[in-house]
Amino acid sequence: MSILVTGATGNIGRRIVDHLIDMGANDIRALTTDPAKAKLPDGVRPVVGYLGRPDSLSAALTGVERMYLAPLPATLDTTLRMIKAADVSYVVALSGDGHWQAHADAIDASGLANTQLGPGEFLENLAIWADQIKSTATVRDPYPDVVEAMISMDDIARVAATLLMNPDQARHGQMYELTGPEALSRAQIAQQIGVGIGVDVRYEQCTRDEAIELLRPIMGDNAAWYLDTIGAAVDRPQRANQLVAELTGRPAQSVADWARQNAALFVAD
Length: 269
Description:
Layout: E1 3-5, H1 13-22, E2 28-32, H2 35-38, E3 44-48, H3 58-61, E4 66-69, H4 76-85, E5 90-94, H5 101-108, E6 114-117, H6 130-136, E7 138-141, E8 147-148, H7 153-165, E9 174-176, E10 184-185, H8 186-197, E11 202-205, H9 208-219, H10 222-231, H11 243-248, H12 255-261
Parallel strand pairs: 1-2, 1-4, 2-3, 4-5, 5-6, 6-9, 7-11
Antiparallel strand pairs: 8-10
Helix pairs in contact: 1-7, 8-12, 9-10
């Protein structure tokens, strides 16, 4: 069984490769533009290619039975046609609604057997608060009451690998809205980071403009876009589900667990 992982050196794709190895996959192809720099594990076959250059995909797709499709909307239609022509039997795609709706609709319309993963905000995004917590043990943010059920990239990758190894357990043609194990307000999320790292982390509400200035050194021009995305959810609390546990047999990481695992981000040397 040959499995192709696109975006194999990215944040989620690389983790999928590791989970597939742990689950016993023995024919993994990893799409990469530079095999020498990819530093892939032994037994993983790097194949040169890039979703942004569909003409580079033909060789990578030959003989592939299942694949993980990383999001790249600019060339998605051509990529989907090539995947279908290559007779790939099952695709797990990172997708979502809202900003990603056109992407999700194109995959739905492709005729491919697929399951889409639509996660909420990544726990890894909490690193934007790292400098504030490290220096003041305080998070300054404009939206204390926005409720999210944040999920780690590793849990997303674990679900993707599980479905690639066991496509019969997936609902084909469906979108899995993946979340962390509990829904928390932004103020509670800051507090749970403190629980994880053993520090009393406070939350202080500030204005949007003040928050932009705090985040600009980290996020550049994306700071305003990010905060507006969060602000749009003021009246739309996210609900947590237990899909990660149901699909993989192990619960998703909590905020506190993730923070504990990544304490070096938040605690001064």
